[in-house]
Amino acid sequence: MPAPVPRSLVVILRTMLILAATGSLVVLAVILPLLWIDLEGVSMAYAIPLIAALALGVACLQVVGVCIWRLLTLVLRGRIFSRSAFRYVDVITGAVAAGGVLLVVIGVVLSEGTAAPGLVLLIGGAALLAFAAALTVNVARRLLAQAVERDTQARRLEDELSDVI
């Protein structure tokens, strides 16, 4: 049987999630309103999609953080290899993919303005990385499904063996 995940590791990860969540709230409550003020005089057709995409991107990150928190709870309870983990992994995949789409939207909006082409290319590269991360999480989900299936088979065989004995 594999060694359990050390509780200290879960505490460190949760501390990082709390710091990230706090930072995301600062972005939503302070940074984005300040950016909105800085965009005064800029076309609303430019400012609204940009601010909306940034806010939705932060929301996607918050969703990922909540799902990771829930997965860590399953880890602590020794239930990570269960079907209940699938919904969190699926939501993470969707949120990361949505973040990639939002990065594409931000790149398109910036390309219409005076943004440097290099910045638009960097955002496009970040979008590709987000899509790659979503696919990687999808692969991890498939591995989780295999592990859950094997665990189910092992339990069934143990039950059959105990009936025989």
TrEMBL record:
Record key words, sorted: Membrane, Transmembrane, Transmembrane helix
Origin: domain of life: Bacteria
Source species of the chain: Citricoccus muralis
Entry's transmembrane regions: 12-37, 43-76, 88-110, 116-140
Name of the protein described by the UniProt record: DUF2975 family protein
InterPro entries according to UniProt: DUF2975
